[in-house]
Amino acid sequence: MYSIRPANADPATDWARQTWSELAARPDRARTVVVLPVHGLADHGMGLPLDAEETVGSAVLHAAVAAAWLQPRVLVLPPLRLVAAPYAHARFGVDVETVLETLAAIVAGVHASGFSRVLFFNTSPWNAECVATAALDARTGLDLRTYVIDSRGIGLGFHPADTGRNRTQAVAARLLGRVPSHSPHGPVVRDTDFRPGFFERPAPVPFDPALDGEKLFVDSAAKLAGLLGEIVAHAAGIEHPKGTTLPPVCPPPQTVGGRSRELAGLMADEVARLPAKERALVIIPAGSIEQHGHHLPLGTDAMLGDLRLERMLPRLPADAPVYVAPAITYGKSNEHLGFAGTITLPARVLQRQLLALAADLKALGFRQIAVLNSHGGNSAVIVATLREIQTGLGLRAGMLGGYHRPDQSPQEAAYGFHAGEWETSLMLASAPGLVRMDRAVCEYPASIEAAGGLRLDGGDAAYAWKTSDVSKSGVIGDATLATAEKGARWLDESSAALAGKVLGLLANPGC
Description:
By secondary structure, the protein is α/β, with parallel strands linked by helices. Among the domains are: 27-254, 3-Layer(aba) Sandwich (Rossmann fold); 410-489, no CATH class. It has 14 helices and 14 strands. The chain has helices spanning 20-25, 52-65, 96-112, 128-141, 165-176, 213-233, 268-272, 300-312, 347-363, 379-393, 410-415, 421-430, 467-470, 484-507; strands spanning 33-38, 74-76, 117-122, 145-150, 188-190, 198-201, 281-286, 322-324, 368-373, 396-400, 442-443, 454-455, 461-462, 477-478. Helix 8 packs across helix 14 and helix 12 crosses helix 14 (484-507). The protein is globular, with a radius of gyration of 23 Å.
C-alpha cells in the first residue's frame, strides 16, 4: 500500500485529524504544546532510505506522546520535510530563506489558532540553526513560548560528526526490518574544525548487529517523553508526574516492500539506478492543512491526495516508470484564515518549494513531472510556477486533474467546492472514523439561477473572497448529500481516469 505517512496517525494527538471547531473549542489551548516535526531527506551514510530521519523521528515521537498524561496536553503537526539540503547527499531541499519563511508561516498559523506554546522537534543536522532561529523569532515576534528538541539530545543523531550514528542506524534498521546496505562511495568530509565544516558525503557507518535497536528505541522514546513532560509543565502550573508513565513500546517492523515508487523511501543509490528516467513521470502531491467545516478534519486535502495515489498506482503496470516525490503538505490557504487550525504558506514559499523540487528531480535525471493538487487555493500559484519550470528548466511539467466529473446536481457541481458532497463522500469511503456526519451542513455562496455575470469563480466577472464571506461553518456546498457508496464509486472512477492520463503521458513523453 502506497503511503506518504502525512502525520502522526493518532487521532487524539494529531493536529491534521482535528476539525477546526474542535480546536476552537479546546479549553486548554494556552497550555497545550504544539509539536512541529522537522525531518530532512538525505543519505547519511547509514545505508538507509532517504527518509530515515522521518522513519526514526516520527516513530519515537509517537511512542513518547503515547504517555497517558501527555496525550491531552500535546498536539502534533504534520512534519515539515522540504528543508535545507546543502550537500550532495541531501535531497529535495530548499534555500534557507524559504525554510525560515515556512517555519514562520506554520508557527503563525498555530498562534492564530489560539495556541501559545510550540515545540520544534528536529532530526536534521542541516536545519538546527534554522529551527533555533525560528524559535527565537516566534518568541520575540509573537510572544509564543517556544522550545527545541534535537534528536541527538535523545541519542538519535544524524550528523556525520556524531559518534553515536551507529545507534541511530540500529534503531532505523529495527523499525524498517532490514539490514542496512552501503554504497561503495568513500566519504568527502573536510574542515570539520572550521565551522560549519564541509560534509559533502558522510563516512559510511558499519552496521553493528550486536546493538539492540529495540532497546535503544525505547530508551530514546523514554527520554523524549521525559523532556516533553518538562516542557508541558514549564511555566504552565502543571506538576510533572515523574515515574508514573508507562514505558514506551517499539512498534513492529515496517512491512518490506510497497514503497518502490516513493522516491523518499528509496536509498540514494536506488534512486540513481532507476531505469528509463527520460520517459518516467514523477508525481508531486500538493495539499493543505486547513479547515473543512465542523465535520471533516484539517488534513482532508493531504489525506485525499494520498488516497488518490493509493488507488491509482496499483492500476499501472508493475514496470511503469511512475514515481512519487515528497509531498507539499502545507499549502496556500489564506482564504480560510479565521478558522482555527488553518496553516497557510505565502505564495512565494509555495512557488520556491515547487521550483526546488523540480530542479532536484531534473538533477536526478527526470524529465517529466506532474503535480497532483488536492487544494484549489494552490492552483493559481502552481500553474504559474509550472510555466517557469517548463521554460526555465526545460521539463515537461503539468497538473493532473479534471479527468472525471462526478454525477452531481448542477448546483453542487458549480458551488460544492469545499467540504461538500465530493470531499465528504470520499472521506466516508476511505476514513469514516474521521467524518462527523452529524455535524454536516449545507451552505452555498450563491445559486446557479442568480442573474448577472458576477461570480466567485468562473464568471464573466469574479471577485476575491475569503471563506468567512460566504460561509459560517466553513463548508461551501452540501455535505449532507454525501454517502460512502458515492465516495467508493467516485474514487474508483476518478482513479481509473487518472491512471489513464498517466499512461498517456508515459506513451508520449516528448516535451
